[in-house]
Specification:
With 299 residues, the chain is α/β, with parallel strands linked by helices. It contains eleven helices and nine strands. The protein has one domain.
Length: 299
């Protein structure tokens, strides 16, 4: 990619950050949502990974969902908007716009921390605040963006670092970067007795331990480390998802658990049961579509 194209990518990223930020911060959400939905008509606000995401979606499902490009980007833009919304919005805003499948949550286990499992699906910022309000200050396991990014990705990774900081603020806990993360998680869960959030549909890297899962009719492999540790240590397990309704903009959070004394395959079964259902309802909300080939190609 030549320098002009790289600069163009930076300009595109800047425009999207400013546009989404202004829409989210200056307008009431009902109007913000309609503006974001309207904006998906334009190529300028389509992410660089959209073409790969939709192609993989069609190959996996056997057909392309109606308006796949627009809906995939709508979910992405709402997730971006939530970064800005959580900077300013109150608990009252959350009560109006986040619908949760349950309001009761057990008191956190005093003997060991719980594992919360979610996929890169929908919009997760408000779930972190909801969990914190319920007494679960989760430490998020994440892949840190590079501190020095190449031209073309500088703003993308800059906003990524800002998102990590906002996640830590919403969680009330320091995020856990990958790289020696299993021992860091073990210390937080067993020594500090505090919860951890993992997203096992991260891109699968060569040489990484993996485990099979059946999702939307496909056998795939996902990273096994955190799930195996949860089973080995008999940790309480919660599984949840959050996704925006594409007609109203309201977020819907569905949370299951706690599950106790699970084997690794039991955890996988719970993930399959939960996410086969939510993905069948709206597959366009899965942000992992651009990298699903790392799951499908895994031996």
């Amino acid at each position: 990619m030549n320098r002009i194209k790289k600069v163009a990518l930076e300009v595109k990223s800047l425009f999207e950050i400013l546009f989404v930020g202004c829409v989210a911060l200056l307008l009431p959400w009902s109007l913000s949502f309609r503006v974001l939905r309207w904006s998906t008509r334009f190529h300028l606000l389509r992410g660089e990974a959209t073409a790969d995401a939709v192609a993989n979606m069609e190959a996996w499902l056997g057909e392309k969902p109606a308006n796949a490009e627009r809906l995939y980007n709508l979910h992405r833009l709402i997730d971006s908007a939530d970064f800005f919304l959580t900077l300013k919005s109150s608990k009252g805003w959350m009560q109006r716009h986040l619908q949760v499948s349950r309001q009761d949550m057990p008191v956190a286990d005093q003997e060991k921390g719980a594992i919360f499992i979610t996929l890169h699906y929908g919009q997760g910022f408000w779930a972190l605040k909801w969990l914190k309000d319920k007494g679960y200050q989760v430490g998020w396991l994440y892949a840190p963006p590079p501190k020095v990014a190449p031209l073309g990705n500088k703003l993308f990774h800059w906003i990524g670092r800002k998102r990590v900081s906002q996640v830590e603020h919403l969680c009330g806990a320091v995020a856990i970067p990958t790289g020696g993360s299993i021992e860091k998680m073990r210390h937080r869960l067993l020594n500090e007795k505090k919860p951890v959030l993992v997203m096992p549909d991260a891109p699968l890297r060569s040489g990484q331990s993996k485990i099979k899962m059946h999702l939307l009719g496909r056998d795939i492999c996902i990273p096994a480390g955190a799930l195996s540790m949860a089973a080995d240590e008999k940790l309480p397990v919660f599984i949840y998802s959050v996704v925006a309704d594409i007609t109203t903009g309201h977020r819907h959070m569905d949370i299951k658990g706690p599950f106790y004394n699970l084997e690794t395959q039991d955890i996988i079964q719970h993930i399959q049961d939960h996410y086969n259902l939510v993905l069948s309802r709206d597959p366009t909300a899965w942000h992992a579509w651009p990298w699903v080939s790392t799951f499908l190609d895994a031996p």
